[in-house]
Amino acid sequence: MKNRQMRPTRRQDPVSRNEGSHPVPKNHKTRLPQQLPGSPPGGSTLPSAERLARIEKRKARNRAFSLTLLVLLIMVITVFAIVLVMRQARPRPRFIFIQPGEIAQTVTLPGLVARDEQLFLAGSSGLLKPLITEGSRAAKNQKLALIIPSGREDQLRELQKCEKDIIDLQNELMQQGKGAGARAVYDESAASLTTVVSLIRHDLIRHDLSSISAYQTAMTIILEQRTARLMPIDFQDARLTALKQTRDALEQSLGLEAATLVSQKPGMVSFKLDGYEADLNNNALLTLSADALRSHIEERDAFLKISETIEKDRPVLRVFSGLYQSLAFIIPGNQTAVFPVDSWHTLISTDGGQTIENCQVVRAEKTGDDTLVVLRTDRSMEWLSDRRVIRAQLTLNRTEGLKVPYNALLDYDEETGRASLMLVIKGVARKCRVQVNAYDSSFAIVASVEGEEHQPTESAILVVNPESIEEGEFIGS
Question: What pTM did the predictor assign?
């Protein structure tokens, strides 16, 4: 063993240790992965910076292209929506048939009101207690009012409370369906009140409060007339009968110590006075000078007033029994040709929209630069019973011809009075020049112009809103 030499140990190849493995030839060379062009040393397989840059640029171009397409699509949709909205918002043409008509030139002026009236004087001083409603008609020998001496105010207040209780109870019974004819009276008065309320609303919109007192008076008269018409209706109610008996007893008690005014002849009664009843009557308006009438128009209050406190031997009420009342106006310019004596006219009150027909001219004369006109009428007697001055609309002249809406005029020339209309001729919109003879804020009177290719005629089709259509555009047959 000592002499045995140590043999070197043969180192086995790691590969050969594995069972089933084949020995690698000595001259065998291991093939390494091929290095990509531009790859970093060491044989890395990751994309290069240049390739990454190209990819990023391609992505950026794709994003920009997609964004451009999206913007173009939004723009197309927006334009389409705008066109659609404009087409829908464009007004559609409206058509009418041209018809003959007239336009009146009017002027609104104050006028003096006068009547032939009988005045009643107070036999004693005291408080006035009317027994008839303002503006109503009284029969001969009918009791009109009581003048209650001082010291009887408590009984008067008790009478007024009794009258209010009667009205309230009538309202309650009417709501229950009692009292034949009561509903008709209420409906009629409600319609009148609605008219007055509409006028008040219209004035409030225009911020005009000048006629509020007139409306208050009108509503008071309507309510008083309703009360008078309800009194004779039998509601068949014991409570109402008892209240009426109490009212009669109070009136009789007050009447024993009060002066009773009785109508000596039938007529319309008013308790509103201004002290000029004896001076201003139908004959006075025929004889007073224009300056005197102008002074009365400018200085008198429009509405007469009622006084509850009465003085002895002073006027307390008036009865109007005449058939006519007179209205005096001072009209600017020389209008004697427009208002000849014995001509007939229609006035419109601007205070309440009341139309006063059958007004006959009884006096017309030129005074300076103006014209004095006095008219006489038998209409609207009750409505004007509490007025001394009325504002009315008078017609100065009328122009007749083909009447078209003023908005249908195109290119109107004030100097020549020429304008254009858009007519529909054989289904096509055509312009034609016309002569404007008269116009107001709503309509115009036109006539054809000689030499024009197209002429306006009665029953021709007119485009009311010509801005909604172009000339030559086909409308249809």
Answer: 0.60
